[in-house]
Amino acid sequence: MKKRVTIKDIASKLNISPTAVSRALNDHSDISESLKKRVQETARDMGYTRNVIAKRLVTNNSNTIGCFMLGRQDIQEETFGFHLIGGIIDEANRNNYDILLFTTSSSTEQGKDYIEMCLERRVEGAIFMGLRLDDPYLDNISQAPFPTVIFDTELPGTNVYCVTSDNRTGIRRAMEYLWNLGHERIAFIAGHAQAQVTKIRFDAYREFMEGKHAFLEGLIFSGDYTRQSGYRAAQEILVSKLKPSAVLVSSDLMALGAIQAFKDAGLHVPSEMSIIGIDNILACEYIEPQLTTIAQNPFKMGEQAVKTIISCLEHRKQPRRLALEMELIVRGSCGPNPYSHTQRTLALP
Amino acid sequence: MKKRVTIKDIASKLNISPTAVSRALNDHSDISESLKKRVQETARDMGYTRNVIAKRLVTNNSNTIGCFMLGRQDIQEETFGFHLIGGIIDEANRNNYDILLFTTSSSTEQGKDYIEMCLERRVEGAIFMGLRLDDPYLDNISQAPFPTVIFDTELPGTNVYCVTSDNRTGIRRAMEYLWNLGHERIAFIAGHAQAQVTKIRFDAYREFMEGKHAFLEGLIFSGDYTRQSGYRAAQEILVSKLKPSAVLVSSDLMALGAIQAFKDAGLHVPSEMSIIGIDNILACEYIEPQLTTIAQNPFKMGEQAVKTIISCLEHRKQPRRLALEMELIVRGSCGPNPYSHTQRTLALP
DNA sequence: TTGAAAGCGGTACCAT
DNA sequence: ATGGTACCGCTTTCAA
Asked: Are residues A14 and A91 in the same domain?
């Protein structure tokens, strides 16, 4: 490790004080233009690069946001998570913040909780992606002494914020779309209980169905967000008494599995069975038929998480929960209900 | 920002020196067990968390690796990049390194090159993902004064290393597989010139074909790694004089586009046209037929990048280029050459 | 407009 | 085994 040029080196070379150098480099107003120029030039000539670590120590200000990538095992998160990160870095760097990235495996092994890792690095805020309800450090996060954003999960705590998608509206739109195609027996495939959205999505479905007096326990099936579980759930649907003509599936991955199951059973999608997923993963476009889905906007969610943290840091009040709009992307996996003689064309508000 | 407990606070509370506290906290061997215990307990009681920033300043050692996510526009990178990052963080955290994540947009706007950003933060090494050959800071990277790993790109420079996949072997295996299915007119769809692997992949293809005395310029088609370009290239193949019976495509995404083009033209895959991609993206399994492909191992590549940097830091010599094994994943997109009466069964070394 | 000096929170060298 | 102290590189009063 070779010696680096410091402001003292510049100062002594120029026969001025380190103070002056510091202020010249930081473009303070109380330094003469001529000195500034001289300092900046010699700094460049000497190959000086400022030491942010020293600066952070003295200003007691890390300009850093910690970001935890949790539960990567969930394949569903892959492309979604990548865009989330993209949005986070973009927005952070734009505001001169650094992003420190952590993963779960190593940290927890060492017995350090998330918040302590942040505290040690004097991180100013933290973002959690892929947090599960059975995470052992849940209430640790709740007590974070700095602004914290969790995707898709609302936790108690004064510094804890949630950035998510407006699943309720998104699902309502999808359900209305199906309903208007004449479907009334609309099944639902849920995800696992360790994700907070699981319940939110189910509630949205239920709310719609009850509004139509069409809610039936027998239409509910469950999975765990994996493709395999979607396949199995679809098999159950096939033998169910209620003979649903459409399914709303809590994730695209499960929907992909479901489509496969229907195909394998010789049931044609969409003419005999309509299906809608959630997420808008890449594969939606490649499967036959292309999957109609409710899309989230992960990049924007990432940006929003950082915005929320920075706003808190600047003492601007933030809503505890921010739900970004979802978009129904209509492709080829839905058709009119073949059993219905009363297909609606355009109805309802 | 409330006042934090420091080592000195603990020292004065215990009437000992800060030195002793520091050493007790760091579990040095020259401190009595009893003192260690006392110190650690009071530290906990007082709510002390060590300040890594201060430590980094004094030890002149950031324990941090910078990671640049470049060219995210390339959809191909999505899931691949996510695993790359996963591997990087895992391995870094396991070795007590932090990962600082950067993106291109903001940094370059501010006129700061990659290396300067690293230098300011006293980063000990850097990793570049998605670097393109037309990046304006290419020779800036070459001169990095710290170990640097670039995925899939070899650059001159004493501190620059390359972690990639062994495309040559991977492609040879795929080509042999096709050849053994009786294909001799094997077309190739290349990527754009801004990625170094583009040439490597083409060379591997060419080498094989020339070895069989089957190389023909007319079998080469080009794309830019997007699905659309794969579609277009496939259309050209359809009208080409040489009537290839198989195609090796430089990325799965292009292969997906190509399959679509063949389908649209009424050509059946794999009975009338065999096709192999590279990458093993998620969608390979969802398309009909499932796509045979040459898989990379992005997670392992990420780990390897970090290992390389840490090895350099520990003065262990590293190879300038490390190519990880690729695996031919046989699925349903290849079949025997229908025009060939001489289908080989098992041949060649 | 510039300078001197006191830290920020640790670590490490040299004593004891 | 423990303490005194200088110092890492920078910023920030306060004084000149």
From this structure: no
Distance CA B51, CA B98 (A): 14
- Note whether B276 and B318 are same-domain residues: no
The bridge status of strand B292-295 relative to strand B274-279 is parallel
Q: A287 and A180, same structural domain?
A: yes
Pairing status of strand B98-103 against strand B292-295: unpaired
Same domain, B197 and B118: no
Residue among B199, B211, B181 nearest B275 (CA):
B181
The amino acid that residue B253 corresponds to is L
DSSP B259-320: HHHHHHTT--TTTT-EEEEEE--GGGGTSSSPPEEEE--HHHHHHHHHHHHHHHHTT----S
pLDDT over threshold 90, residue A82: no
Q: Rounded distance, CA A285 to CA A301, Å?
A: 23
**Residue A176: pLDDT over 60:** yes
Closest residue in A to B107 (Cα–Cα):
A93
Q: Which residue has the tokens 């290992």?
A: B307
In the predicted model, residues of chain B with pLDDT beneath 70 are 1-2, 72-78, 105-111, 341-349
Residues of chain A with pLDDT > 90: what percent? Answer: 83
Contacts of residue B52 in chain A, CB cutoff 8 Å?
120-122
Query: Could you tell me the CA-to-CA distances from B5 to B45, B59, B167, B177 in Å, in that order?
Result: 11, 21, 54, 65
- The confidence score (pLDDT) of residue B85 equals 92
User: Is A156's pLDDT higher than 70?
Assistant: yes
Query: How many Å apart are CA B290 and CA B293, to the nearest integer?
Result: 9
Which has more pLDDT, A282 or A252?
A252
- Nucleotide nearest residue A57, measured CA to C1': C8
- Specify the CATH number for the domain of residue A19: 1.10.260.40
Q: Nearest residue to D8 (CA, C1')? A: B58
Question: Is residue B176 in some structural domain?
Answer: yes
- Mind telling me how many Å the CA of A90 is from chain B's nearest CA? 6
Q: What is the pTM of this model?
A: 0.92
Predicted pLDDT at A131? 92
Same domain, A189 and A250: yes
Q: How large is the average pLDDT for residues A163-182?
A: 98
Structure tokens that stand for B197 in this block = 């692997």
